Each structure stands twice: as C-alpha cells, then as structure tokens.
Hints:
By secondary structure, this protein is of the alpha+beta class. About 25% of the residues lie in helices and about 35% in strands. The protein is built from three helices and twelve strands. The chain has helices at about 1-15, 85-100, 165-180, and strands at about 25, 30-35, 45, 50-55, 60, 65-70, 75-80, 110-115, 125-130, 130-140, 145-150, 160-165. The strands form three sheets. The protein has a five-stranded antiparallel beta sheet with strand order 3-6-7-2-9.
Amino acid sequence: MIRLVLCIPLCFFTGCGTPTRPLTMAGPDAVVAKYAEPSGPLVMVVERPVYDRTASHSTIDPRTLVAVLQPSQATWLAAARLNAVQGLDLVAAMQASLSDAPPAQDSYLALTVANELPPADASGQRVVEGGHWRWVGMTSDNGLVRCQLSLLDGQDRVLARVSMDTVTAATLAADIGLIIRVSPERISAVALKKD
C-alpha cells in the first residue's frame, strides 16, 4: 500500500513510462510568413534552441533563431537560424558599425518584403533554403539614423529588410551575442540531418 501511494505522486511529477525526447535536427534555414506585410507593432526575438513540431513528431534545432515577431498575430514574419559562427560574425559586423552610432532619437522597427518570394507551403510559411541574415549598416532618413538588416536567400537575393533605430539594433546584437556565448551549441551527430 505504501509503495502504491509513493508511486502515484512520482508518476505525476516524472511521468509514467519512458519519456520521449524530441530529435535534435535542423529545421528550415529561414522562413518568411505567407502574409508577411506587418499590420501592427513588431519586436525582434532571439532564442535557442528552436522547437519545431509537426503532426508526427517534435524536433529541436540547436541553432539560434533571430526573428521579426508580430505579437498581435503571434507570427514570425521573417526568421533565420544562425549557427555559432554565423551569429558571432553577425554580432561583430553590427557592433563595429554601431560603435560610432549616435543615440536613437526615436523608437523604430519596420519590415519590408520583396515582391517575389518562394511559394508558401501547407503551413503557410515560405521556406528559404540557405536563408541568412546580413547586416547592411546604417543610413540617414530625414536626419534619423536607421540600421538595416537583410534576410537573404541562398543566392544572396534580398527577401526582406528590417529597419530599426540604433538602440534596438544594439540590443539585438547584445542578445544574439549573449545567447551564443553563454550556452554554446551542443550538436549531436544528427543535428544537421534534414528530412
């Protein structure tokens, strides 16, 4: 009787039976939402690892996701995954450019997408093989400094461009650098295997 009483809470906290762990597997390099034109405020998101779910299974991508999120729709409008080298290169380029940037005079984050994009799949995403973020630099727009980050496909064609103020850009660079440096990738033998 005592064993049964002890077993019930144990099953509650740890689960009965063998737990199933998601596979470690690379997901899409980049995606653009089917309807990627923003219709409300945006935020930049940096996270790792990335959990992907399909009808049949769940997987974990050990790379770092950098995405433009529209909170009102809970949608990543444009996103790409960076390995550690790509992430550190992006951070270095951003920090070198931002080191002499004037302080932001306003808060600004906008996304524009190209007219020609890959077709959307059944989930409503436009998957971009070889997609990646590239720091473009800073421009001046009516006296306001704008930082530019582009989402490119595998042939370096621009699919989307993020424009932001200097504080947003500096915060993004710091977030990417922190995630990459604090918790290094642990890639198993199947990490880069794709379906």
